[in-house]
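Appendix B. Raw example, untouched.
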Amino acid sequence: MKQLSVFLENREGRLSDVLRILAENNINILSLSLADTSEYGMLRLLVSEPEAGRKALREQDLSATLTEILAVKMPHEVGSLQRILTILCDAGINIEYMYALCTGTSEAALAIKTSDPEVALNVLERSGVDMFII
């Protein structure tokens, strides 16, 4: 799955600019995460049309890239996240970051950026972990 990442100056109105541009281009936000420091922020989004989103943001001189991530389904049970992380760790796959994923369903889900998305996907699927395809 492609994640749209936007590097933002940490100043008033920058997040609103991104959201306006996406709305003007009829791009729906499915899930997002925003992390910041005192000087900049990293906005990570799953959107309905990642390529079009990147193009629209770049046309407005915003730094936007696409990154391959995994969207992992998890049951609402104690230990579910630990099970998934153990599968990846045992396969030697590093998790660079992750965040909760809004899916519009009752299932829990994560967006996970790994050191090797293709291998991670294969390992998780072989272990019976369900994935979202958005």
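End of appendix B.
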